[in-house]
């Protein structure tokens, strides 16, 4: 969440999938609490609205890391096939070298390899 709405740069596979894991767990917990308390999608709806932009931004940065435009997020709007294509794209290896979106994500987070 520290790069809340940053669409510039790149995100590693780990950054993207950890974000999605936390999002999914929190969303499930909120849904269970809503079911127990008897609320009708109030908490999970507010949470979804609050985290939609960061989720879109990290997906865009993940696509940048594979050398694709963030506009490839829109492929997920195609039922079933589009979602499969999107997941495959986010699972692909990062480009090892700089690309038009910046240096590899691991270099931004941990410094360049070989630096002391």
Task: Please describe the structure with a list of short key phrases separated by commas or semicolons.
116 residues, mainly alpha, elongated, 4 helices
Ranges where pLDDT stays below 50 over 5 or more residues in a row are: none
Overall pLDDT, averaged? 89
The helix-and-strand class reads mainly alpha
Sheet with the most strands, sense and barrel status: none
What is the element string, with H for helices and E for strands? HHHH
**Helical residue percent band:** 55-70%
**N-to-C terminal Cα separation, in Å?**
28 Å
* Rg on CA atoms, Å: 16 Å
Number of helices: 4
Indicate the proportion of strand residues: under 5%
Shape estimate: elongated
Strand segment count: 0
Put the structure in a nutshell.
The protein is an all-alpha fold. The chain is built from four helices and no strands. The protein is elongated.
Describe this structure in words.
It is a single chain. The protein has 116 residues and is an all-alpha fold. The protein has helices at 13-37, 42-65, 81-91, 105-110. Helix 1 (13-37) packs antiparallel against helix 2 (42-65). The protein is elongated and about 50 Å long.
